[in-house]
Amino acid sequence: MSDRSDAAARPRGIDPRGPRFAAGITALLLLVGVLLSLTGLSTAQTGFGWFAYQPLADAVLRPGVGWSIQSATIAQRALDPAFLLLLVIALLFLWGVLSPQTAPWGVLYRKVVQPRLKPSAELEDPRPPRFAQGVGLFVVTIGLVLHLAGVPWALPIAAAAAFVAAFLNAVFGLCLGCQLYLVLQRAGIIGRERPAAA
Amino acid sequence: MTLVNALIGIAVLLVATVSIGVFLQWRQSRPRRHIPHEIVQPARLGADGLGETATLLQFSTEMCSRCPGVHRTLAGLADGRDGVRHLDIDVTHRPDIAKHFHILQTPTTLVLDRNGAVQTRFGGVPTRDVLELELDRLTRETADV
Questions:
Q1: In chain B, residues 72-111 whose CB comes closer than 8 Å to chain A
Q2: Domain that includes residue B39, residue range
Q3: ipTM computed for the complex
Q4: d(Cα A5, Cα B89) in Å, to the nearest integer?
């Protein structure tokens, strides 16, 4: 015997391998983003210019040594390659939240990958991957805003956090909605408006 | 930062991520027995009763992609055994229930004995074999009484 407390109509199911395929591509992009941000403006220190190699930079604390990003203009911060790549990733996350059916990696999966695989045994609810896209968008946006505000290390840390989630989703099947939803709800950040429903 | 340092950073990130994944997977499949053996009141969960031998009490949310699969496993187990009942409670809009049972991740599955006392807790996706063993044990205990 089996009961479900909430038998409300569910949205049409999706092939669960689609979101994991998309997470794999996202993880790869985010890893490139981490690499670009580590070698770019976000973590550069001033010496003789932005990308100057300083063999002994950590040996002697010279006066006047600081973060390049703090003396860069807004335009310079926005034109940093890592910033541009993470902006693209953020827009892709936004696309995935607003219109999951037309998001590029989902379309690529359905057009190219899915026809070559066996049909999926079970279709799954599209809401959990959408929630994960929203979390990704939130994390990457924080990194982008802090970077524009001149905070060093904002981009690599945000990109690394998003990478961990996307990689674990793609490789281990980790589901952010499973791990985070109730934690965020307990913290009072989401979904408290209907506490006594049902 | 030089390219070499950046690549070292990437390698550290990859190793750390894989470690987290392996750890999470290892922890998910382990049943926990040293927990408070609380008596569950079915009425508080909106259910009309519990199983005569055992109850598989699952907690799910709408944002949980693994819950439907666990639902199928548990429903299959309950269908194949007399006196075993499967209850799937959606706590998406019931933070009070989630808080009461200290649920921070879904699916979380509690195995209840014939009195409704919590015997075992699974955080994550339980393995079918371990569940079968739990149910065998509870069925024997009921038969002994």
A1: 72, 74-75, 78-79, 84-96, 98-99, 103-107
A2: 33-144
A3: 0.84
A4: 5
